[in-house]
Specification:
The chain starts with 10 loop residues before the first helix and ends in a 10-residue tail after the last helix. The chain is mostly helical and about 70 residues long.
């Protein structure tokens, strides 16, 4: 179920939001919703990647090396 939130932004921010929304041929509220959803998805991805690295990073580095010049890479 979709939820509604209301936020207040300054005039400059709203004008930029309108410009970006127009570039994408969507309404400002729809554009803001898309950006918020994408930003939250990015945060979840980065948190998941960090959790993976924290838990498995050492074993991964031992098996595959730590960079493109690693002797294990190939």
């Amino acid at each position: 179920m979709a939820k509604e939130i209301r936020i207040t932004v300054d005039d400059e921010t709203f004008e930029e939001l309108q410009r970006l929304a127009a570039d994408g041929h969507v309404e400002p509220a729809q554009y803001a919703s898309q950006r918020l959803t994408a930003d939250l998805a990015r945060v979840r991805f980065l948190e998941g990647a960090k959790a993976f690295a924290d838990e498995h990073g050492q074993a991964f580095a031992e098996r595959f090396g730590t960079g493109p010049s690693s002797s294990h890479a190939a």
